[in-house]
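Sequence design from tokenized structure. All designs in this work follow the same two-part layout: the structure record, then the generated sequence. An example of the structure record is given first.
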């Protein structure tokens, strides 16, 4: 008998005779029935709790709102290739697949999102042209995401239902931060130090 078989045998003996496994109850909520206006308020509340900056605007005010939000950012702005021209601030540069190391030299990134989950304050980027490649959202020090009201869902199950499970999903809940070291919050450890959300409604 090998060591592996001996160990597994001991585990089986310790567990004893077991009956059939009970089915897993899947009675969790899959649909959020709250009105859209309420979901937007919940999303804003969660994002601000995570130390993100949220700015609301109308559909025709996106570029001006983005420019105002980026006024204090040092350095150029790089945008995902699928970001509409009506959202782009003047002087921004489109990501053309340049080496990832070069992206760290930009002051900020502008992307769209594929979905936003109100309950958890989570923005989801899926690697599409609107969202850009993953490195684009992780390397510059400031990330600006434009979220349209129609993209906001209430719960995680609803969000997962509208996403492509084979896409390279990046889920963002606030700026990058950690409290691992002596319980001191340190921002910008694994990604952007600042997250600005432009909510279009």
């Amino acid at each position: 008998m090998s060591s592996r078989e001996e160990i597994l045998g001991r585990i089986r003996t310790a567990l004893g005779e077991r009956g059939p496994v009970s089915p897993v109850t899947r009675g969790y909520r899959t649909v959020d029935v709250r009105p859209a206006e309420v979901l937007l308020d919940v999303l804003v509340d969660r994002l601000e709790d995570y130390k993100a900056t949220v700015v609301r605007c109308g559909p025709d005010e996106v570029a001006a709102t983005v420019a105002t939000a980026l006024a204090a950012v040092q350095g150029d702005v790089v945008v995902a290739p699928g970001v509409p021209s009506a959202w782009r601030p003047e002087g921004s540069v489109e990501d053309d697949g340049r080496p990832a190391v070069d992206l760290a030299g930009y002051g900020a990134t502008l992307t769209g999102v594929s979905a936003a989950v109100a309950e958890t304050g989570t923005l989801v980027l899926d690697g599409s042209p609107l969202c850009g490649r993953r490195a684009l959202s992780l390397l510059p020090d400031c990330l600006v995401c434009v979220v349209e009201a129609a993209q906001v869902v209430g719960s995680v199950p609803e969000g997962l239902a509208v996403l492509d499970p084979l896409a390279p999903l990046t889920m963002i809940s606030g700026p990058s931060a950690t409290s691992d070291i002596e319980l001191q919050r340190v921002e910008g450890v694994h990604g952007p130090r600042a997250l600005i959300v432009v909510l279009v409604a």
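The domain at 35-200 is CATH 3.40.50.10420 (Rossmann fold). We note this feature because it recurs in several other targets discussed in the main text.
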